[in-house]
Amino acid sequence: MSVLIDGLQYANWSERIFRQMRAGGVDAVHVTVTYHETFRETVLQIERWNRWFEQFPDLIFHGRTGADVLLARQTGRTAIFLGSQNPSCIEDDIGLVEILHTLGLRFMQLSYNNQSLLATGCYEADDTGLTRMGREVVAEMNRVGIVVDMSHSGERSTLEAIEHSARPIAITHANPASWHPALRNKSETVLKALGDSGGMLGFSAYPHHLKGGSACTLQDYCDMIARTADLMGPANVGIGTDLCQDQPDSIVEWMRVGRWTKRIDYGEGSAAAPGFPDMPVWFADNRDFGNIRSGLNAAGMSDADTDAVMGGNWLRFFDSGFGARGTGAAGAHDAD
C-alpha cells in the first residue's frame, strides 16, 4: 500500500486531530496556515505550528521535502506541509517569497476568490489573467520551490499560470465543474491542460464542491475521480479533502471576508446557511480515508492506480516541486 497524503486541510488544530491523523495512517497533510494575514501575521501562525511540533513530536513534524513523507511513514508520524490560500502573506514584496520558503511554506495560491496583486479569483466577473507582478512571482516561486496553487482562481488566470510556470502547478482542492457546477470547480479545459502539463488536482470532499452537497454518495464521488483520472491521466490526480474540522462557523467569515469588505460575503454558501456544511457521512475526519480507497476500488480502479491517487502521485509531485532550482525559471514559457 502506498503513502497516504491529503493535499489540503484547514482544521482547528489540536492533539485530538493529530491523533486522528495517526489512527487513519495519514503520512502527510498540506495545511493552510494563512488566508488574508500579512507577512508578520503569517509568521505568528508558523510560530504556532512550531510550538505544536515541539509539543507533539511523536505525532507530527514539519515537512519540507518529499523525503519527509517517507520519514513520516517510517517513524509513524504525519509530516505537515505549510501553505497559504492567498498571496497576502507576501504583501507587495517579491522578496518575501524566498523568506517564506525558508520558513517552510511550500504552497501558495495566487488568489482567493477575489482579484489579487497576482491573479484573478473565481468570484470576479472579469478574469484578466496573471498580472505583471503575478508573472514575476510565479517565476520566483518556481526558483525557490513553492508550488503555484490555483484552487480559488479564475479560468484564464489558471490557464496562464499553467502556461507560464516552469514547473507543474497544482489545484489542491477542487472537483470538475462538469460534475458539479460550483464556481470553485474546474472546467475540462483547465483539467486537461493541468494534466497535460504534469500538474496535480486534489479532489475535494467539502460539501459545497460535491454533487448533492453533504448527501453526496461515496460511490458518486469515487466514480467522478475515476472519470477524471481518465481525462487527466491517472498520474495527475490525488486527494485534497479541504477538511475544515472542528472550526467554529465564525471562521467562515474570516475566510470569505477577511478585511476586504464590511459586509458578509456568503461565497459558496447561502444566506440561509452561512456556516460550515456537514461533511458527507463517509468522510468525517482523517480516520475515514479507507472509505475513499474502498470506493475507488469499487469504481474499477486498479490497486496501483488507487495507491497513486491516495498519495503516490502527491509524493512524486512533492519530490519535484519543493526543491530550489537555478535562476533560469523566469520567463521559461515566454518567447515574447
Present the secondary structure layout.
Blueprint: E1 5-9, H1 15-23, E2 28-34, H2 39-55, E3 60-62, H3 66-75, E4 78-84, H4 95-103, E5 105-109, H5 132-144, E6 147-149, H6 155-164, E7 170-174, H7 188-196, E8 200-203, H8 218-232, E9 237-239, H9 250-257, H10 289-298, H11 303-321
Parallel strand pairs: 1-2, 2-4, 3-4, 4-5, 5-6, 7-8, 8-9
Helix pairs in contact: 8-10, 10-11
Radius of gyration over all CA atoms, rounded: 18 Å
Write down the overall geometry. Answer: globular
Tally of discrete structural domains? 1
Report helical residue fraction.
25-40%
What structural class do you assign from the helix and strand content? alpha/beta
Elements, N to C (H/E): EHEHEHEHEHEHEHEHEHHH
The number of distinct β-strands equals 9
CATH architectural arrangement: Alpha-Beta Barrel
